[in-house]
Amino acid sequence: MPQIFSVPRLLINRLRDVMAGDMEADTRLQKVVTLIAGTMIADVCSIYKRTETDELELVATEGLALSAVHQTRMALDEGLVGQIALSGEPLSIQDAPRHPAFSYRPETGEDPYHAFLGVPILRGGRVIGVLTVQNRTERLYEEDEVDSLQTIAMVLAEVVAADAPTQPSAPDPRESRSVTLRGRILGEGLGLGPARLHDPIVSPARYFTEDPDAEALRLRRALRQLQASIDRMLTSDVSAIFGEPREVLEAYKMLASDPVWAARLEETVRSGLSAEAAVDRSRREHRNKLDNAADPYLRERMHDLEDLDNRLLRVLSGGDAAGTADGGGEGGEVLIARRLGPAELLEYRNSGLAAIILEEVAPSSHAAIVARTLGIPTLGGVTGASAAVSPGDQVIVDAEEGTLHVRPDQDLLDAYATRSLMRTERQAAFQALRDQPSRTRDGEEISLMLNAGLALDLETMDKTGADGIGLFRTEFQFLVSDTLPKMDSQIGLYRQILDYAGNRPVHFRTLDLGGDKILPNANRGDEENPALGWRSIRFALDRPGLFRRQLRALVRACEGGPLSVMFPMVTKAEEFLEAKALLMKEVEWSVAHGFTPPCEIRTGAMLEAPALAFALAEIADEADFISVGTNDLMQFFHAADRMVPAVSERYDFVSRPAMRFLDMIQSECRKYDLPVSVCGEIASHPLEALCLIALGYRSLSMPAAGIGPVKRMLRSVDLSVFVPEFRAALSGRSPDFRNEVLSIAALQKIALKDS
To answer: Would you say residue 301 lies in a domain?
Structure first.
């Protein structure tokens, strides 16, 4: 029986011939628009390219005036083409000139055309151009025509992006010279190894298939392999890390088994594209929707779909779905990704990764916290990393200085080797201090506690010699699940933490949700400044059912042992008193139902809003301790959003205003006999920790990597000598307080650095 060619299949076959030709990029684009116009029976077909100045330039047309090519330009928000570029969505209009967004350009000669269809050209999740067709008659384009044009736009992406003649069969045209990129340090350390791209690259040469039937069979086999890999995840130990997020993986499995997704992929393959091209098209669409989604829940779902696309591409390329095979070469590989969720990152934990590079991540994101827990050097916000690196490129990740060196020269490699050796010796020295007391030379005992949020963190307690857990973030178990964790799941996680800690103290921070950490279907809409919005204790008190459920789980997990709970971002006394009252109600409930209550209950408030510093007298009789959360406190104190690089590092923690404010807080707590600790990233830096203990703080909680350096500093300082000079500097007026403190520390030979 003869093969019947549909319009999309015929178009794809002809397009393949054009793409395989040896010609200039402009010539290729002109042939493409002529081909599309002829095959789709369109009077006009045009391609607009997004320029570096964010304009849309007409670069090829069939049907409009050729003199307008490279002459007609529109702003990104101008006309129907601009509307498509901004939204990233297709647009079909029956009578374009009557549309309110229509922008008439007389030089193009488009007067007689009415029907209009345009689709975005996407590359790397970004709109880089627009492909349009037009007809004289008034009509709406059919769904299959929209679908065909989107497929063509995907194939064209590499050609449109090129500034020079492009050969589809040529290797990825990445530069061979050394490149240095900057990022933000998420997890300190040094890493060297070949690059591994988490987001697979589909070569333009792999866009087409000669045998759609065989390709469809290959796609179905890959889908089965993907589903089998997720089944293995369900039976693996990944779930133990968060307590029991089985619901997450079950929901993920449902997405991977979605027949609509599979049918759409196969339909694209039947048109003449390869399985990789079909999945790549799906990924581009999901990525664009993710980038444009404001709702956090929708963003998470789009991220899950994009991750499935990536997993399927890895299967098609002959790898495993997770892409977590052992790294090659000494020291493992350097993982490079646009973005990673915490569960994805955890799948790499046994892969021997040398380092991680993330293009899109904040220092306080879940992925960043997991990376620090895993002890893997990590940089975030490294714009353009995926574009600058090819798989297998040698890279150095300097997560001490915040730089990524791609294809480093020999001098850089020699410098890395020297620093790596020094770091190994330094880590050995820290390990030797593990069982030594955290005591200053003049006998002051300082408690060094651990910030944690995963069961995985428990291992670092013994490795670092931490005195306990000063902050356990309980929200992780909620954030990785599409449904609320069951009561037994919450109790199990909290009990696991308490059992491992033994006699060491554990301070559970209740749910710190809201802002940028929203539960599914719990969002109240966009907030202009989420950090100052409906979050933390405000969120918990407005959701008493959810809050009491967690408090009940904490009470029951103790089984007669001690319980220490602290409430996040308390701003006024009433919030603390209301939260404590709910906790005591859960204690009463447990007793009434035959459960053994905690033998001791300690409740504390996290001082993260400056207002609470002036309300300590009102909670002094009810609170058992105060924990100063420096991450939020300092951003509110300086009015500088810590998520915005332009201002987050503008204000130094070691400054007179910050030190005087923290001194006031410590004095107020001492006045009311309130034990006070500091919990935050800043406590893990030796100089900042030195300033804190000079102010009188005797308990610091920090990430695991900070305990060794801070303990070494403590054991080198004589506070009876340092504090008077520090106080004198604090009351002075010299313009550079940090350097003044550093000079004092250097004269007293306090161990702040490795040298």
So the answer is: yes
Which residues does 409 contact at the CB level (< 8 Å), separation at least 6?
178
Residue type at position 672? Y
- Strand (E) or helix (H) holding 578: helix 573-592
Judge if 600 and 706 occupy the same domain.
yes
User: Which domain CATH number covers 238?
Assistant: 1.10.274.10
716, 751 contact by CB (below 8 A): yes
DSSP state of 193: E
Tens of pLDDT along 612-664?
999 999 999 999 999 999 989 999 999 888 767 677 778 899 999 999 999 99
Kindly state whether residue 105 falls inside one of the protein's structural domains: yes
CATH of the domain at 21: 3.30.450.40
Which domain range does residue 233 map to? 203-322
The reply to whether 520 and 664 lie within a common domain is: yes
Task: List the structure tokens of 420.
Answer: 């790596």
The angle at the Cα of 24, spanning 22 to 26, to the nearest 5 degrees, equals 135
Same-domain status, 186 and 244: no
**Residue 129 falls inside a structural domain:** yes
**Whether residues 566 and 491 fall in one domain:** yes
Confidence of residue 14 (pLDDT cuts 50, 70, 90): confident
Q: Choose among 669, 668, 664, 691: nearest CA to 680.
A: 691
Q: Taking the model in full, what pTM does it have?
A: 0.64
Whether residue 620 is found in the same domain as residue 731: yes
Query: Are 361 and 400 members of one domain?
Result: yes
Q: Where are the alpha helices (DSSP H) in 695-752?
A: 704-714, 719-730, 737-747
Active-site annotation, residues: 366, 679
Indicate which CATH number applies to the domain containing 186: 3.50.30.10
Distance CA 320, CA 225 (A): 9
Query: Phi-psi region for residue 261, left (φ > 0), alpha (ψ -120 to 50) or beta?
Result: alpha
Q: What is the SS3 assignment for 73?
A: strand
Domain count, the chain: 4
- Output the DSSP codes for 464-505: HT-SSEEEEETTHHHHT-SSPPPHHHHHHHHHHHHHHHTTS-
Among the candidates 276, 296, 322, a domain finishes at 322
Q: Are 221 and 355 in contact (CB under 8 A)?
A: no
Q: Over the stretch 216-270, which tens digit does the pLDDT of each residue have? A: 999 999 888 888 877 776 665 444 444 444 555 566 677 677 788 888 888 888 8
Statement to judge: residues 298 and 351 lie in one domain: no
**Tokens matching residue 621:** 């009789």
Q: Cα dist. 84→52, 80, 90, 93 in Å?
A: 18, 6, 6, 12
- When pLDDT is cut at 50, 70 and 90, the band that residue 396 belongs to is very high
Task: Walk across the sheet containing 91-93 and list its strands.
Answer: 73-75, 55-62, 44-50, 126-135, 115-123, 91-93
Q: How far apart are CA 235 and CA 233, in angstroms?
A: 5
**Is residue 438 within 8 Å of residue 445, measured between CB atoms?**
yes
Q: Which residues contact 297 (CB under 8 A, 6 or more apart)?
A: 518, 520, 521, 523
Question: 522's torsion region: left (phi>0), alpha (psi -120 to 50) or beta?
Answer: alpha
**Is the confidence at residue 329, as pLDDT, over 50?**
no
551 in the same domain as 479: yes
